[in-house]
Design a protein that fits this description.
Number of helices: 1
Number of strands: 10
Oligomer: single chain
Radius of gyration: 15 Å
């Protein structure tokens, strides 16, 4: 199994297995419970795959966390996370699913779109790698302000 690294993000899988879609979500900083107050929101774009089966991704700045099956479709953005392992091994960590669905506020995020191709941010949109949802969840639990 090949491994490629970009900054702190490690992807375990085929070198040809690269993201083929871009999910856009709106992050509501000022009203994360209701996903309202557009003035306090930011657009976030996540490179992802077209269906389940993406390689395992882990960010060295988050030891013990990994994600796989990072994909989007017309209904939302999806990923499978693992706490307690950096290799997406469910026998070594706790498995959890993260889904951001159309018209449903989740962790202060609202799914906007899923389009083929690379992420091309416009305006103040931010492109982030996998594990971003773990960061959002941790910040929401702490009740701290989110800065992207």
């Amino acid at each position: 199994m090949a491994e490629t690294a970009s900054a702190n993000v490690m992807i375990r899988g085929s070198r040809d297995d690269k993201p083929s879609k871009c999910a856009t979500l709106e992050l509501f900083v000022k009203d994360p419970i209701n996903c309202k107050n557009e003035q306090g929101s930011k657009m976030v774009q996540i490179p992802c795959w077209s269906g389940p089966g993406s390689p395992c991704i882990n960010d060295k700045s988050f030891p013990g966390i990994s994600v796989k099956d990072v994909y989007c479709d017309d209904n939302g953005y999806h990923e499978t996370g693992f706490q307690g392992t950096e290799t997406c091994d469910e026998t070594k960590g706790r498995k959890f699913n993260v889904d951001f669905l159309k018209d449903q506020c989740n962790l202060g995020m609202l799914f906007i779109s899923c389009v083929p191709g690379d992420c091309q941010p416009e305006g103040d949109a931010v492109i982030v790698d996998g594990l971003w949802s773990v960061v959002v969840e941790e910040e929401m639990e702490k009740g701290t302000a989110l800065e992207v």
